[in-house]
Amino acid sequence: MITELSGTGRRVSIDTLPDDVLLEIFDFYVMPPQTSHNQYVDAWHKLVHVCQRWRYVVFDSPRRLDLRLRCTNRTPVTNMLDIWPALPIVISTGSPLPASDLTNTISALQQHNRVCTISISGAPNALLKEFAAMQEPFPALAQN
């Protein structure tokens, strides 16, 4: 991609930008607005699919870019955990949560050491029982 610098007549290829400049740009792209964090949790996905260099830059700075994996009741959690690096997990389900979609939510909850946010609406009794049976702490929840 070639971009003209405003008012200079000079053209610069994005490939010539150093990684720290790309990271600064990425930071603005993935930074959530004050109002809704959930819609921006997945923003980094587009960046890592552009090219291998961008993928390396993004995954080399997971804390700065606040990278997280969003798990919903419809997210195939087991597959997702096999594909992406071990990033913090945000569990967010809609209301009401159908009993047929419990498997994905339970799979995400079982990653207790990575779960940093839990927002479950309309949880059926089966999920509440499963959650109550978990004896493991959620250390990442305490860090937020």
Could you write a compact summary of the structure shown?
Helix content is 37%, strand content 12%.
Structural summary, described in words:
It contains 7 helices and 5 strands; from the N terminus they run ββαααβαβαβαα. With 144 residues, it is α/β, with parallel strands linked by helices. It has 2 domains: 1-66, no CATH class; 68-144. The chain has a 3-stranded parallel beta sheet with strand order 3-4-5. A two-stranded antiparallel ribbon has the order 1-2. Helix 5 runs parallel beside helix 6. The protein is elongated and about 65 Å long. The termini are far apart.
SSE diagram, text form:
Layout: E1 2-4, E2 11-13, H1 19-30, H2 44-48, H3 52-59, E3 69-71, H4 77-83, E4 89-92, H5 102-109, E5 115-119, H6 125-133, H7 139-142
Parallel strand pairs: 3-4, 4-5
Antiparallel strand pairs: 1-2
Distance between the termini: 38 Å
Unreliable stretches: none
User: How many domains make up the coordinates?
Assistant: 2
Overall 3D geometry?
A: elongated
Strand order of the largest sheet: 3-4-5
Secondary-structure class = alpha/beta
